[in-house]
Write a sequence for this structure.
């Protein structure tokens, strides 16, 4: 059974930092791209960041580039999202996802439909 478990969310003040962790189990994901998405109440699930299988290529949404950093540890089947300079607009439920469709170095999609496995999410709330 495939399982993705996110952790590290919480309530913080604007300007603070948080580090989200996504632990994968039930399958080895070291050959696949992983990503973070987020969803605010009443809005669609939006792309945040993606990373390729080897961890040497990544892509960020315009809204978080320069503030967030995605990384992974394949030995631990884990992906991280370091979030700095948090803003109230970053408040959302953050989801981890895995795309098992390709293991290409340049494959790290930014669209919900390309991801096959999802976690339950971790809430991030940023107070102004």
């Amino acid at each position: 059974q495939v399982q993705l478990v996110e952790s590290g969310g919480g309530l913080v003040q604007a300007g603070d930092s948080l580090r989200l962790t996504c632990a994968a189990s039930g399958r080895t994901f070291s050959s696949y791209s992983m990503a973070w998405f987020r969803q605010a109440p009443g809005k669609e699930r939006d792309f945040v960041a993606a990373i390729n299988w080897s961890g040497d290529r990544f892509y960020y949404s315009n809204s978080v580039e320069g503030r967030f950093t995605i990384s992974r540890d394949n030995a631990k089947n884990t992906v991280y999202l370091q979030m700095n300079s948090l803003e109230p607009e970053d408040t959302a439920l953050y989801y981890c996802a895995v795309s098992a469709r390709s293991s290409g170095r340049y494959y790290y999609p930014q669209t919900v439909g390309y991801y096959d496995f999802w976690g339950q999410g971790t809430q991030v709330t940023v107070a102004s």
Remarks:
- The radius of gyration is 14 Å.
- The CA atoms of residues 23 and 78 lie 5 Å apart.
- The mean pLDDT is 95.
- The longest strand covers residues 18-25.
